[in-house]
Automatic annotation (TrEMBL):
The lineage of its organism: Bacteria, Bacillati, Actinomycetota, Actinomycetes, Micromonosporales. InterPro entries: DUF6282, Metal_Hydrolase. This is Uncharacterized protein. SUPFAM superfamilies: Metallo-dependent hydrolases (SSF51556).
Length: 298
């Protein structure tokens, strides 16, 4: 149950990591239902993510039911093998149709493939997807022309770009290129899960303007996965600072709690562990709104 005091903290939340459907992975709800779920805590916006396809097209196809839905929904595309990997054409289509995020490889990243080479609870797609590994480098070991072009497209559109599930060295090289090309909105997903970025890696990428994302799914006791103690998240916030941190749900999968229920439980725990209300709102409202292009952080 959400109290009036907690609801005041949560109101205006922007979730940049919602796995609503459709998707080849089993999902608990679709984008319209996610919008209505977000209204329970007065969410300001939701970015829906698929590992396999351009979610902007989903939202355009659902525009009639979304017209009266309470929480604005935004989409983007992940540059996995299903869309041709680091494919500037796929990025351009998403951007030109109103996309707000380009996710670099997630399930096609070598780091992800190595991490999930065994059954560790990560969902499996329906049917064979013939997925291939995707790299940001060319045959010479330099950032590829396609990668460079995608970062320039992101910079021109001034939208969000994430490092996906790339390993730390690949992500640092990508972010250096992106920052040099003028990308302002950069995000590191779950640095201590799959990515395994160390303190020096994080420091370098934050220095390039990146924010560090932590996912409520990894701290929720009902989610199959890490189930880390909330004190671990408190330590991350203290180490990196709320000004460089965002908290998103990474939820929507069948069998897992709804994103809103995770916000209610875990943001309440952060407050109980002494994280200031202003810092919480910095991480779930202000930083996330900036990354989605809704407002500046200052």
């Amino acid at each position: 149950m959400v109290t009036p005091a907690l609801l005041k903290v949560l109101e205006g939340t922007v979730d940049l990591h919602c796995h609503s459907g459709p998707s080849p992975f089993p999902r608990r709800f679709d984008h319209v239902e996610a919008s209505h779920d977000g209204a329970r805590i007065g969410m300001r916006a939701i970015l829906c993510k698929s590992h396999h396809h351009n979610t902007v097209m989903d939202l355009l196809a659902m525009r009639t039911p979304l017209k009266d839905a309470p929480t604005p929904m935004f989409g983007g595309v992940a540059l996995n093998s299903e869309v041709g990997g680091i494919n500037p054409s796929a990025a351009a289509v998403a951007i030109n149709m109103g996309g707000k995020c380009i996710f670099f490889p997630t399930v096609s990243a070598g780091q992800h493939i190595a991490a999930h080479s065994h059954d560790d609870g990560f969902p499996h797609a329906t049917g064979e997807l013939y997925e291939k590994e995707v790299s940001v480098f060319d045959a010479t070991g330099e950032i590829s022309e396609e990668t460079d072009l995608v970062t320039r497209l992101v910079a021109d559109a001034d939208i969000l770009m994430t490092g996906g599930h790339l390993d730390a060295e690949s992500m640092k090289a990508l972010f250096r290129t992106a920052s040099g090309n003028g990308v302002r909105r950069l995000l590191i997903h779950h640095p201590d899960f799959i990515v395994n970025a160390g303190p020096a890696d994080i420091e370098e990428m934050v220095g390039l303007g990146a924010f560090v994302e932590h996912e409520l799914s990894m701290y929720h006791p009902e989610v199959k996965g890490p189930q880390w103690p909330i004190t671990r998240l408190v330590e991350w916030i203290e180490r990196v600072g709320p000004e460089h941190t965002v908290i998103d749900s990474d939820l929507g999968q069948v069998g897992n709690p709804l994103p809103v229920d995770a916000y209610i439980l875990l943001i309440g725990q952060l407050l109980d562990h002494g994280v200031k209300e202003a810092d919480v709102r910095q991480m779930i409202c202000r930083n996330t709104a900036f990354l989605l292009g809704l407002e500046e952080t200052n």
